[in-house]
């Protein structure tokens, strides 16, 4: 009796310790997961644009606007617009919107019908840089 009770006790402690270790492992991996996901979410990704990605518009826009998922650093964020031949057609005046710190715009001249590529490169307020590109078409 005493012996069997004595034998059982350490195994229960062992099970409890094992369970606690399991909880710690789960807690640690959850923390790591949250850190990784949190970092991914903190980066600025394209949320919307005008003209819209891959859209075809009839009238030349006065500016190209890009909205990202994070607030942007003015001066470290810019948009370039090029025509099908690669010629830059924006006016190099990228600015951050006063109403929405996640939105930047650049002016363009009167764009002829054709395909245009927009390249955005930004630094969000968390100092992370991201970039991307898309196209839009001006219909003849
Ligand atoms: Cu980030």
TrEMBL record:
Keywords in alphabetical order: Copper, Metal-binding, Signal
Main localization (coarse): other
Signal sequence bounds: none
SUPFAM superfamilies xref list: E set domains
Superkingdom of origin organism: Bacteria
Coiled-coil blocks: none
Subcellular locations according to the entry: Cell envelope
Domain CopC per the UniProt entry, residue ranges: 43-138
InterPro entries linked to this entry: CopC/D (IPR032694), CopC_dom (IPR007348), Cu-Rt/internalin_Ig-like (IPR014755), Ig_E-set (IPR014756)
Name under which the protein is recorded: CopC domain-containing protein
Species assigned in the record: Pseudochelatococcus lubricantis
């Amino acid at each position: 009796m005493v012996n069997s009770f004595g034998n059982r006790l350490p195994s229960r402690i062992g099970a409890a310790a094992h369970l606690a270790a399991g909880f710690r492992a789960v807690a640690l991996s959850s923390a790591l997961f949250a850190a990784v996901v949190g970092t991914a979410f903190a980066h600025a990704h394209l949320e919307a644009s005008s003209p819209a990605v891959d859209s075809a518009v009839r009238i030349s826009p006065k500016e190209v606007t890009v909205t990202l998922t994070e607030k942007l650093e003015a001066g470290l964020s810019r948009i370039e617009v090029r025509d099908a031949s690669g010629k830059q057609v924006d006016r190099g005046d990228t600015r951050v919107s006063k109403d929405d710190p996640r939105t930047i715009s650049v002016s363009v001249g009167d764009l002829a019908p054709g395909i245009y590529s927009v390249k955005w490169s930004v630094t969000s307020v968390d100092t992370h840089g991201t970039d991307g590109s898309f196209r839009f078409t001006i219909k003849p």
